[in-house]
Amino acid sequence: MFLKQLDTLGFKSFAERIRVDFVPGVTAVVGPNGSGKSNITDAIRWVLGEQSAKSLRGSKMEDIIFQGSDSRKPLNMAEVTLTLDNTDHKLPVDYHEVSVTRRVYRSGESEFLLNKQQCRLKDITDLFIDSGLGREAFSIISQGKVEEILSSKSDDRRIIFEEAAGVLKYKNRKKQAEYK
Ligand code: ATP
Ligand code: MG
Predict the structure, then answer these.
(1) Which residues bind ATP (predicted)?
(2) ipTM over 0.90
(3) pLDDT tens-digit profile of 108-126?
(4) Which of 115, 119, 145, 164 is most buried when burial is the number of CB atoms within 10 A of its CB?
């Protein structure tokens, strides 16, 4: 499984439709301070289901919608699509390619799509859990994260190992079964 493409429209500083192609090998994103490098990883975390505006460096979810600039009006919607190559079927679905889309409107409405079909946040979370790319996963290491892991409580650190070992899925299912 690997990231192929990221498409954004109206997400944070990306007012226009932007496409990032991740070619095999290492992709480095360079640019001056404030040019939107971190907004790219924010877009990836958001489309994978991040629900905390704070961890996306805002105070409310609306903050991720392009808020206008000197030359452009604010937009009413943000949309991000992440396309993954799934020829190794790491993601437990039949598709060779998986695309995840998330949209949010200023009115507060939001939607998720999996290969262009509407779905729930839970479907996305379930699909990516234990794949190493989930919202809570450590495939995205942000500034300060390494230090946070090293200084975390042993219970919190245990979650990291459980995700890496692939048992988080079963623990979550058990918890859900107990609620029913
Ligand atoms: P650094 O090198 O300092 O880490 P960076 O390239 O990672 O910078 P980002 O943090 O990705 O930069 O981008 C910050 C920019 O995104 C700021 O200029 C900010 O005004 C802009 N921005 C954030 N949210 C929005 C929004 N909703 N609408 C328009 N612009 C936004
Ligand atoms: Mg940054």
Answers:
(1) 32-39
(2) yes
(3) 999 999 999 999 999 999 8
(4) 119
Q: What is the CATH number of the domain that holds 69?
A: 3.40.50.300
67 lines ligand 1 (CB under 6 A): yes
Instruction: For residues 54-65, give the mean pLDDT.
Output: 92
Q: What is the DSSP letter of 64?
A: G
Q: How far is the CA of 35 from the centre of ligand 1 (A)?
A: 6
Domain span including residue 103: 2-129
- For residue 72, the one-letter residue type is R
Write out the two tokens for 156.
Answer: 């919190």
The CB of 41 under 6 Å from ligand 1? The reply is: no
Name the residue type at position 93. V
Query: Could you tell me if the CB of 62 is within 6 A of ligand 1?
Result: no
Indicate whether 162 and 111 sit together in one domain: no
Counted domains in the chain:
2
Q: Do 16 and 95 belong together in one domain? A: yes
User: Could you say which ligand is closest to the alpha carbon of residue 78?
Assistant: 1
Dihedral of CA atoms 150, 29, 95, 137 in degrees, nearest 10, equals: 10
Going edge to edge, which strands form the sheet with 117-119?
18-21, 2-9, 77-85, 97-105, 110-114, 117-119
